[in-house]
Design brief:
Keywords: Membrane, Signal, Transmembrane, Transmembrane helix
Organism: Rhodococcus rhodochrous
CATH architecture of the largest domain: Sandwich
Strand order of the largest sheet: 5-6-3-9-10
CATH class of the largest domain: Mainly Beta
Helix content: 25-40%
Order of helices and strands: HEEEEEEEEEEEH
Radius of gyration: 25 Å
Pfam family, one: DUF1775
CATH superfamily of the largest domain: Uncharacterised protein YcnI-like PF07987, DUF1775
Strand content: 25-35%
Protein name: YcnI family protein
């Protein structure tokens, strides 16, 4: 009787651990699966700087073929440049202001499905722009992610507090304090050695994946150790006493 119950317990414990590990792996994908700003480089308040948007594809049946960001009213970016992406075209829209003009919208798009981002890929969309506001610490950039099947996901929601995250959070550019020591060229790009955008994006994503994978792995190890211990007890119960 004891042996049968122990085996049932081992089976249930292993199933629970496996399901827990799979659940944690799924949570890791969900946590990283939204358009966001890479925090490696930060534009300065009142100055210029680089912004890298990390764009993963959530769909298993369609690929990402378009990204659009909207610059909010009150954020008067007089200049913006985009880093070329093979197979993609970038368009910068502007509107007149009292002092000249401001950037209102940036669109990246590909018309060739071969260059779209499928479900196992992400893209890095980089712009250099400024001047950024000098009286705020961050700027929200509402975005739209277009798919090859015609669907559109809008990343335009703002968290109500630091402890919550909306379903479709908008990318947020965090600004560095003025005089933080960032070097700039004539347009505001960093002149020190900057990491490759793809490697920076990978570095930004890997810590999250590593954490969840480590937790899932630990759950499996605990389950395996428990199974071995219970099986040892089962075997001892069947050893004839001298």
């Amino acid at each position: 009787m004891f042996g049968r119950r122990a085996k049932q317990f081992v089976g249930r414990l292993t199933v629970v651990a496996l399901l827990g590990g799979l659940g944690l792996s799924g949570a890791a994908g969900t946590a990283a699966a939204h358009v966001r700003v890479d925090g490696g480089d930060r534009p300065t308040q009142g100055g210029y700087g680089l912004v890298r948007l990390i764009v993963p594809t959530e769909s298993d049946t369609a690929s990402t073929v378009r990204l659009t960001i909207t610059v909010p009213d009150g954020v008067d970016l007089a200049s913006a440049r985009t880093l070329p992406i093979p197979g993609w075209t970038a368009t910068i829209q502007r509107e007149p202001t009292a002092d000249g003009e401001r950037v209102t919208r940036i669109d990246w798009e590909t018309s060739d499905p071969a260059y779209g981002l499928n479900g196992s890929e992400f893209g890095v969309f980089t712009l250099s722009a400024g001047p950024w506001p000098d009286d705020v610490e961050s700027v929200v950039l509402p975005s739209e992610q277009g798919y090859s099947d015609g669907s559109v996901v809008r990343w335009d929601e703002v968290a109500l507090d630091a402890g919550s995250e909306p379903e479709h959070p908008a990318p947020v550019v965090t600004l560095a304090a003025a005089g933080a020591g960032h070097g700039h060229d004539g347009h505001g790009d960093r002149v020190d050695a900057s990491p490759d955008p793809a490697s920076t994006a990978s570095a930004a994503t890997e810590p999250q994946l590593w954490l969840w994978r480590s937790i899932a792995g630990a759950a499996l190890v605990i389950a395996a150790g428990s199974s071995i211990g219970v099986l040892a007890l089962v075997r001892r119960s069947h050893v004839p006493k001298p």
